[in-house]
Write a structure and sequence with these properties.
Layout: H1 3-11, H2 17-25, H3 28-41, H4 46-63, E1 65-67, E2 72-73, E3 78-79, E4 86-88, E5 92-93, E6 98-99, E7 104-106, E8 118-119, E9 123-125, E10 130-132, E11 136-137, E12 141-143, E13 148-149, E14 157-160, E15 165-168
Parallel strand pairs: 1-4, 2-5, 3-6, 4-7, 5-8, 6-9, 7-10, 8-11, 9-12, 10-13, 12-14
Antiparallel strand pairs: 14-15
Helix pairs in contact: 3-4
């Protein structure tokens, strides 16, 4: 098991090893993340890629997760175990990020922010949040539930409301991002 998958697994209740993997397989968020990573990793092996692509499609309908295979996602990615629509386009997400249920992260087609978001490290995105456009979300940012973000967010910030309001805060993700794998 490579380091990225180990970090993803460890984010779920500190699971590790073969026993942890078996237990993690029954957690929808980890299962989908594992399948997504295997599908993108085995790009040149046609049958293996096809197998994981079919699995990803099955769990897309079963759990409601839809993450573009072109998305670049750092280690320690955590999808909440609550099943609900999570839609993530071909974007870049840093390491140790949490994505809750009913989140949409994608492209904006109108206005001055055409493009896709780039999300930094240690970001917690609450349920129902929407992030759209060519925006940069800094490191160590907490985006509160039901927040609409179509603007840049600096490091060490809390974003709350609709429309979103940025509040500078020291260590806003403390106790939100847990089980970080020490290398």
């Amino acid at each position: 098991m490579n380091l990225t998958i180990k970090a993803d697994l460890y984010r779920h209740e500190g699971l590790s090893g073969v026993r942890g993997f078996i237990k993690g397989w029954f957690i929808p968020g980890f299962r989908y993340t594992y399948i997504l990573r295997r599908m993108t990793k085995n790009g040149s092996w046609l049958l293996v890629r096809l197998f994981f692509r079919l699995l990803k499609r099955r769990y897309r309908f079963k759990y409601g997760f839809e993450i573009d295979p072109n998305a670049i996602i750092g280690e320690g990615f955590y999808l909440t175990s609550h099943c609900g629509p999570v839609i993530i386009g071909p974007i870049k997400i840093g390491k140790y990020c949490n994505i809750s249920h009913s989140v949409t992260i994608g492209r904006s087609y109108r206005g001055g922010v055409l493009g896709r978001p780039v999300i930094g490290d240690y970001v917690w995105i609450g349920p129902g949040a929407i992030l759209v456009g060519d925006i940069k979300i800094g490191c160590n940012v907490l985006i509160a539930p039901n927040t609409f973000v179509n603007f840049d967010v600096p490091d060490n910030s809390l974003v709350i409301g609709n429309p979103g309001i940025i509040k500078p805060k020291e260590n806003p993700t403390k106790n939100y991002i847990n089980n970080i794998l020490n290398k």
